[in-house]
Amino acid sequence: MKKIFKYITLSFFGISVISCSDETVLDLSPINNISLSDAFSSPSLIESSVNGMYNAAAIGQYNSTNPNGGRGYIWGAAFVQQGDNRGEDVVNTATFYQLTYTATYDPTTANNVYYWVDGYRLINRANLVIEGVTTAAEAGIITQAVADDYIGQAKFLRAITHFELLNFFARPYNFSAGASHPGVPYREVGIDTQAEIDSEIVLGRNTVAEVYEKVLQDLDDAESLITNTSLTKASVNAAIAFKTRVYLHMRDWDGVIAEGNKLIGEYALEDSPNGPFLDSYGNSESIFSLTQAATMNPGVNAALASQYNRRRLVAISPIIWRDPSWLADDLRREDNSTETEVGTGMVFTAGGAKFTLKYKDGVNYTDASPVIRYAEVLLNMAEAQARKATPDLGASLALLNQVRNRSLADPGTQAYVAGDFANAGELVGAILKERRIEFLMEGRRWSDIHRLQGDDLQPINGIPQKVANGTPAAELYTLGTPYDGPYGVPAVPYADFKFLWPIPQIEVNANPTLAEQQNPGW
Fold first, then answer.
1. Distance from C-alpha of 190 to C-alpha of 129, rounded to nearest angstrom
2. Which residues pair with 492 in a beta bridge?
3. Using an 8 Å Cβ cutoff, are 113 and 169 in contact?
4. DSSP tag of 15
5. What is the pLDDT of residue 209?
6. N or C, which end of the chain is more exposed by having fewer CB within 10 Å?
7. Cα–Cα nearest to 73, from 124, 118, 126, 107
8. Mean pLDDT over all residues of the chain?
9. Lowest model confidence (mean pLDDT) among 61-75, 92-106, 172-186
10. CA torsion angle for 237, 241, 242, 248 (degrees, to 10)?
11. DSSP annotation string for 65-106
12. Residue 230 contacts by C-beta under 8 Å, 6 or more apart in sequence?
């Protein structure tokens, strides 16, 4: 990797990685830094190292020389914004994510480059934590139980970050027989010596199958090792929930159901669809979210409430707003905004356009970044029940209604019934549409577009066409008919090389192996 990590620096947020070019690796610790060997020399410093790992997940570094100078890459806010803007259910209103939205990126596009760079920075942080706490436990500095908890949390972050990168830089699991096509490099070594730099910098891409195998092994390890139960750090339940997402992409329907069943009784949907966002740290359905606070967030250039609320850089698209499956009186349309106040609902109107109000603190940007909620686990299971070898359409319908009914004005008359669907394909279609509505502005759309290429029941061909970049006119939001144009961003066929992001130029410049493994067309 072009950027490597030799020292850990102490900051307000914990311990964060300083990146240095391989030509300027420091030989001595500056006075305000501590070496890696010292960073794992006491329980308090080890805890700070782990906290620093989460800081790297929530904020990242982007192109800053400040270890805390990032823009929410990769799990703070960027995964929401990138996942939304790659799909058709939002409209990018300005230039911030325009290249992502219009698929006009290249190997030097900053928002895509630093998805990779900050992703691997986080992975390296996780690997350093795994190695550091292992050594500390062997030396008796911390107990093995404490070490196991930290190792499990680091393996969780390592797994989900590789999986996230896979969905942007590689074709989906079912693209080739046995998923034997190129994935991403799965890095399991903490880079902190020249020898490790020399060996790791030439590693190439694992196959997609190999990445999935390693992701699931890390998540299984996380499930067996973690004792933490807090929302904003990895937990056993977070590992289980994330496995339902991974198995969904693998089309392992029984795996989805088996993992989802483990969480029955552990979580409950909020009575209101607004509940998870009115209290993003204290609700009953959020499984894993990352802390954002007045003193700990990526600020005006990346915090969710900055981008989606105060600055209004991403609008709800008329494409999903006018979809007939989203009933006109659905509570997720709640809009009590005025010309001067955004209100407390789930949507607000500005200049005639519709914007999400899931992220409510437009002053201090303290809304948690939602990585996975119980509603997703239920819909993952609903889809799996309808798709498995012997479909259980009754169980699938019940799970779908469990999520959808809480948003209906009159569930008694508006809930789906078995007669609404002629076959499993139609029921899966309703589940997928519900995912688009329920997780709107939570970054989930690209994940579904990616996995549904060539699907047997509800196929998507590439990236759908979108409304033109810019703020949509008020009249485009008029309900009553499905949206049929105008469009301004053409579809990207699945066969088009732009369906995948290119491996960043700075990475292929540094790694001759990856230079030979660049995604075709780039």
1. 8
2. 463
3. no
4. E
5. 98
6. C
7. 118
8. 92
9. 61-75
10. 160
11. SSTT--SSTTTTSHHHHHHHHTSSSEEE-SSTTHHHHHT---
12. none
| Closest among 389, 136, 402 to 260, alpha carbons compared | 402
Cite the beta strand spans of 335-436 per DSSP E. Answer: 347-350, 353-356, 369-373
Question: What is the arithmetic mean of pLDDT over 159-173?
Answer: 98
In what helix (H) or strand (E) does residue 175 lie, and over which residues does it extend? Answer: none
445 closest CA partner among 166, 120, 199, 85: 85
Closest by Cα among 237, 101, 89, 90 to 156: 237
Helix (H/G/I), strand (E/B), else coil: 11: strand
Report how far residue 45's alpha carbon sits from residue 50's, in angstroms, rounded to the nearest whole number.
9
- In sequence order, the β-bridge partners of residue 19 are 5
Residues in the chain: 522
What's the Cα-to-Cα distance from 161 to each of 167, 187, 239, 411, 477, rounded to whole Å?
10, 11, 13, 38, 36
Beta pairing, strands 314-316 & 90-92: antiparallel
Q: What is the DSSP letter of 286?
A: E
Question: What pTM did the predictor assign?
Answer: 0.94
pLDDT per position as a tens digit, 86-119: 999 999 999 989 999 999 999 999 999 999 999 9
Distance CA 297, CA 130 (A): 25
Radius of gyration of the chain (CA): 22
Per-residue pLDDT band for 178 (boundaries 50, 70, 90) equals very high
Tokens of 336: 């009590």
25 or 17: which leads in pLDDT = 17
Element at 20 (helix H, strand E) = strand 14-21
Q: What angle do CA 428, 385, 254 make, to 5 degrees?
A: 130
The rounded distance, in Å, linking the Cα atoms of 499 and 87 is 11
pLDDT tens digits for 226-260? 999 999 999 999 999 999 999 999 999 999 999 99
Which two structure tokens, joined as six digits, stand for 97? 């994510």
Helix (H) or strand (E) holding 18: strand 14-21
Closest alpha carbon to 281 in 294, 293, 273, 297: 293
Q: Quote the tokens at residue 146.
A: 């404490």
pLDDT exceeds cutoff 80 at 31: no
Residue 94 phi/psi, 5-degree rounding, is -130, -145
User: CA torsion, points 99, 103, 109, 115, in degrees to nearest 10?
Assistant: 100
Contact 188, 127 (CB under 8 A): yes
- Name the residue type at position 473: A
